[in-house]
């Protein structure tokens, strides 16, 4: 048996613990494929490994900012019974104890929150899990340790994470809700003040808008025609809640929300956030997912200009892979609201992550649905098939390649009212052909699958 204990950054008292019995290697870092996940900007995605040899355990440092024991940087060190090491010069302290804990320590540990252990996911992590955004803002903590606003390779100067709005982080958009904080956590730490969401010392939320079941809502991220998306906190983890507006809590809508939520809970893909919980309170459904950090593709274009043709192709091919995974579910899971704002360039893995699920646009028929240039015409009649997701890829391609709003290229011309890619300035002939097929008013004339769209785009890449 081996026990890992997170120590309080100031008082050095135990805060949380993890116990392992059979794992030969225990990985610690920011990425969600670790056994122990620590969300701090100075902690690398894969920072430390504890490896069990023939006769004893050893600590192996992998992180860019180093691992320290008694103030000295180490690369590898045997564990003789017990050891305390720090991740980076100013990061969290972890105490490691091999074997059964002494009685007094075991009693203390029993009063701490324990992390349920499961093997790490293979391959690439499906969410960013603590990756700093390109604005310099970092994710909120999931453990009571200081978080900073510095990139991984630098040591922080301050432990305060301010509640600032930035277009660089899609989960930190300005509140579109008039709710003000109704309570504050019982936190008396000296740095728990000012315009902060979480205490930099203990990690508790400082401003709570409302409590939903076990979740404390700290911020409204966005509202749309049918639902509300909020940032929430539970047991040391920050998550995103998606629910319906009160006027949409009707049996048909709640049932559609529930069915899609249950499907999402069963999915695991690098191009999707991790969906972790679903519950209903007083007839109101809630879907819980991980928070995704990084720029949306809309933000990327508006702030940095259009990507290169190769970058656009690579991004959309990855989106097509995720769509193909969704569409092959039984029944097919249709996103219904694909647009650049809902494609986040995940700062942790570098791939686009699709967010904005449970929009239920097929049920929200009206002006708000018809206004989007990424909406297929049949959606306005309440139709929902994989073809509506494929349609959206056409205007998305035009926006990414040119920076032009797709709305400008809908017109009543020789072939009736439709999207005319041939009138888009600077759009190459190969892209015109693909976009024209994607945006056909007749669903049966579009590509048969997202995989076909990806193949057509890769053909352009090969011949370019």
TrEMBL record:
Residues 26-74 form the FHA domain. This is non-specific serine/threonine protein kinase. The lineage of its organism: Bacteria, Bacillati, Cyanobacteriota, Cyanophyceae, Leptolyngbyales. Keywords: ATP-binding, Kinase, Nucleotide-binding, Serine/threonine-protein kinase, Transferase. Gene3D superfamilies: 2.60.200.20, Phosphorylase Kinase, domain 1, Transferase(Phosphotransferase) domain 1. PANTHER family: SERINE/THREONINE PROTEIN KINASE, SERINE_THREONINE KINASE LIKE DOMAIN CONTAINING 1. The keyword ATP-binding applies. Its EC number is 2.7.11.1. SMART domains: FHA, S_TKc. It comes from the Bacteria. Residues 215-458 form the Protein kinase domain.
